[in-house]
């Protein structure tokens, strides 16, 4: 965030990553939404983007890069974001994303340090994109599950951002590489509170837990647990499969937001018009021994 005046601030972010789907056009679309989501998660309005890409000069058809760029541009245009430039690097590994700039009124910022005891935790999208992407790479994923995961990643956070402003949400984060647990921990830690999570209420992309039972996990399962360290508690009733779901790194994941108790139900009802699996997943409590308690 950068304060320009009493009633205007800039929101700036950058994100890019390697392909997680086979179709280059869809990869560009997912990468664009993944980048823009950072602005939406702060309740901002994205206005411009600069492309960041790595692509080899030799060995691959430049038409692939063209399709990636075309996919990303389609998402930018759909959401009123102007592409104003970019930078490319000769690199054997394809990578793509955007640096995005947005605008927000300083009084409407949803920060990662604004959670208060009594707030209700809402999540807009189901979890599981990391596990499913790993399964696709290993040839362990059926078409229906892969299609469902792609649909989740291609669902924009724009409406969620609008509703956060309308309902006065002051604390939120998008769920990306550190997984649900990692990003929830960041808010709880920064706010000096404890999140009490209802594991049974956390939505999954259908088929995700079945893949975990088959032994499919992403590498982030281990690193995200290391990131939090001992500052969480999983009840014995939480199965190992659900634990892996909660620590699974997401791409273009949902937004976790903290709403006041008197507005949570109405906010959820409006969210479900655009995010069918949106759910209340817990409550903010006064600070306890650990930042996250999952039951």
Properties at a glance:
five-stranded mixed beta sheet, single chain, 295 residues, Phosphoribosyl-aminoimidazole Synthetase, Chain A, domain 2, 2 domains, 12 strands, alpha+beta
Description:
The chain has 295 residues and is of the alpha+beta class. It has two domains: 2-107, 60s Ribosomal Protein L30, Chain: A; 110-294, PurM-like C-terminal domain (Phosphoribosyl-aminoimidazole Synthetase, Chain A, domain 2, Alpha-Beta Complex), CATH 3.90.650. 37% of the residues lie in helices and 26% in strands. The chain contains ten helices and twelve strands. It has helices spanning 24-41, 62-78, 129-137, 143-153, 158-166, 179-191, 208-213, 220-228, 240-247, 264-271; strands at 2-5, 8-17, 45-55, 82-90, 95-104, 120-123, 171-174, 193-197, 232-234, 255-259, 279-286, 292-294. The strands form two sheets. A seven-stranded mixed beta sheet has the order 7-10-6-11-8-12-9, with helices on both faces. Strands 1-2-5-3-4 form a five-stranded mixed beta sheet, with helices on one face. Strand 3, helix 2 and strand 4 form a beta-alpha-beta unit. Helix 1 runs parallel beside helix 2 (62-78) and helix 6 packs parallel to helix 8. It is globular and about 55 Å long. The two termini are 35 Å apart. The model has no long low-confidence stretch (mean pLDDT 96).
Placed side by side, the strands forming the largest sheet appear as 7-10-6-11-8-12-9
Class derived from helix and strand content: alpha+beta
Residue share in β-strands: 25-35%
Q: Which CATH architecture of the largest domain is right?
A: Alpha-Beta Complex
Total count of strands: 12
Helix content: 25-40%
Largest sheet: 7 strands, mixed
Q: According to CATH, what is the topology of the largest domain?
A: Phosphoribosyl-aminoimidazole Synthetase, Chain A, domain 2
Termini Cα gap: 35 Å
H/E element sequence: EEHEHEEEHHHEHEHHEHEHEE
CATH superfamily of the largest domain: PurM-like C-terminal domain
């Amino acid at each position: 965030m950068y304060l320009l005046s009493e009633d205007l601030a800039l929101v700036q972010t950058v994100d890019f990553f390697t392909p997680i789907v086979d179709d280059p056009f869809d990869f560009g679309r997912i990468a664009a939404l993944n980048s823009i989501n950072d602005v939406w998660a702060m309740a901002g309005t994205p206005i411009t983007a600069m492309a960041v890409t790595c692509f080899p000069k030799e060995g691959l058809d430049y038409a692939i890069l063209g399709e990636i760029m075309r996919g990303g541009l389609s998402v930018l245009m759909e959401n009123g974001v102007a592409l104003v430039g970019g930078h490319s690097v000769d690199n054997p590994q394809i990578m793509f994303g955007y640096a995005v700039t947005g605008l927000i009124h300083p009084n409407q910022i949803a920060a990662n340090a604004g959670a208060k005891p009594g707030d209700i935790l809402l999540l807009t999208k189901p979890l599981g994109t990391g596990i499913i992407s790993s399964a696709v790479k290993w040839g362990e994923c059926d078409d229906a599950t892969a299609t469902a995961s792609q649909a989740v990643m291609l669902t924009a956070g724009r409406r969620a951002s609008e509703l956060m402003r309308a309902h006065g949400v002051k604390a939120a984060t998008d769920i990306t590489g550190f997984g649900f647990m990692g990003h929830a921990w960041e808010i709880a830690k920064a706010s000096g509170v404890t999140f009490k999570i209802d594991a049974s209420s956390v939505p999954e992309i259908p088929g995700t837990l079945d893949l975990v039972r088959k032994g499919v996990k992403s590498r982030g399962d281990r690193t995200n647990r290391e990131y939090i360290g001992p500052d969480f508690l999983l009840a014995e009733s939480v199965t190992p499969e659900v634990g892996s779901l909660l620590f699974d790194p997401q791409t273009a994941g949902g937004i976790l937001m903290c709403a006041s108790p008197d507005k949570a139900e109405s906010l959820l009802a409006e969210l479900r018009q655009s995010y069918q699996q949106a759910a209340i997943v817990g409550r903010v409590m006064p600070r306890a021994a650990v930042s996250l308690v999952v039951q």
